[in-house]
Amino acid sequence: QVQLVESGGGLVQAGDAMRLSCAASGDTYGMIAMGWFRRAPGEEREFVALFTYNYGIADYADSVKGRCTISRDNANMTVYLQMTSLKPEDTAVYYCAARKRLYYMRSDLYREREWDYWGQGTQVTVSS
Model confidence over 24-38: pLDDT tens digits? Predict the structure, then answer.
């Protein structure tokens, strides 16, 4: 099993920056990818960003491209999501996800059902 713990959420103003962290523990050997999803009030959970360990590639949703950067600290099995120029529509609970199975196409990972492990989520609120 893999445990994921997010941190770094909170209340910020539009235009501010924020960094979320996700610490992975447990049986992390063979991790293929880690990513971030979010769920806004009344909405489905949606893909935000991912990083694939097997190819070293980062990928982003169009809604955050250019404003978010996913990075990782391999030694500490921690993944970060740096967000800038935050907008009120970025308000959501942000979830960290991890996958140990190989995938066929990276775009498959845009779907939440493709991920094996989830954190509890951290609330991000952006005021206008």
Answer: 999 999 899 999 999
Contact 45, 121 (CB under 8 A): no
Report the alpha-carbon distance of residue 72 to residue 4 in Å, rounded: 14
Interatomic CA distance for residues 48 and 61, integer angstroms = 5
Query: What pLDDT score was predicted for residue 14?
Result: 98
Average pLDDT, the chain: 95
Q: Is 122 exposed, middle or buried (0-12, 13-18, 19+ CB in 10 A)?
A: buried
Kindly state the tokens that stand for 89: 């529509």
Q: Rounded CA gap, 40 and 104, in Å?
A: 29
**Residue 6 pLDDT:** 97
Nearest to 23 by CA among 119, 94, 122: 119
User: For residue 78, which of 3, 11, 17 has the smallest C-alpha distance?
Assistant: 3
